[in-house]
From TrEMBL:
It comes from Spirosoma telluris. It holds the Pfam family Peptidase_M23. CDD domains: M23_peptidase (cd12797). InterPro entries: Cell_wall_metabolism_enzyme (IPR050570), Dup_hybrid_motif (IPR011055), M23ase_b-sheet_dom (IPR016047). Transmembrane segments: none annotated. One of its GO terms (molecular function) is metalloendopeptidase activity. This is Peptidase M23. Signal peptide: none annotated. PANTHER family: MUREIN HYDROLASE ACTIVATOR ENVC (PTHR21666:SF270), PEPTIDASE-RELATED (PTHR21666). Residues 83-181 form the M23ase beta-sheet core domain.
Length: 219
């Protein structure tokens, strides 16, 4: 269990943040001001309320337009990063996050840029001397208190909580969950979004988290 939702029974909504969503990109109407986090948040949670959903999900390998709100993903020297490498779970701030796999704390930090992860935890999972990693982004700052490298978490043990904006990197409250087979020597951070040119490279080391979670409709 990653979150306190039963995806076999509880209503959820798959959210689309690609250019195919007419709410975000249209020649015939103004797009939402996604740089205004309050507006962005009302859009997301308005969608959930209208659908009677407890949580919004989606995003793996999605070519998104929402990263254009932040210079963190768009610089003058690099190709824009718009390919999402994890699954997002849009839910109320304070929602608990549980370890879906047994593991130890690999690293953690507050990535406090606008549009970044905010408070972030990376766990390491070792099986037959082979390590893989899971990343949890957009948490509360309190989630980092008391952590230390090597701290153990059992399956289902509470790991963190979904953070409010602006402390979560200034996003509508959600959890970014990502798996990696190679941590690339990084600590406390790992790309959650890549450029189109790097898509194949990053997808090869960031498998679809839904292979673990098995949420219907995300494949």
């Amino acid at each position: 269990m990653l979150l306190p939702f039963d995806f076999q029974k509880d209503p959820y909504l798959i959210l689309d943040f690609s250019a195919t969503n007419p709410d975000l990109s249209s020649e015939h109407r103004p797009i939402l001001d996604l740089t205004n986090t309050a507006v962005f948040t009302e859009y997301v949670f308005g969608k959930l309320r209208a659908a009677g959903a407890k949580v919004g999900v989606g995003g793996y390998n999605e070519h998104r337009v929402i990263y254009r709100r932040s210079a963190h993903f768009n610089t003058s020297t690099e190709e824009p990063r718009e390919i999402h490498l994890g699954i997002d779970f849009w839910a109320d701030a304070g929602t608990p996050v549980f370890a879906p796999l047994a593991g130890t704390v690999h690293s953690f930090q507050d990535n406090a840029n606008f549009g970044d992860y905010g408070p972030t935890i990376i766990l390491e999972h070792t099986n037959n001397a082979v390590s893989r990693y899971s990343l949890y982004g957009h948490l509360t700052r309190q989630s980092l208190e008391g952590l230390y490298i090597g701290k153990e978490f059992n399956v289902g043990q509470k790991l963190a909580e979904i953070g409010p904006y602006p402390e979560n990197g200034d996003w509508p409250p959600h959890l970014h969950f990502q798996l990696m087979t190679d941590i690339l020597g990084l600590k406390g951070d790992f790309p959650g979004v890549c450029s189109v040119a790097d898509r194949e490279k990053f997808l090869s080391i960031c498998p679809n988290p839904n292979e673990l979670l098995r949420i219907v409709g995300l494949d």
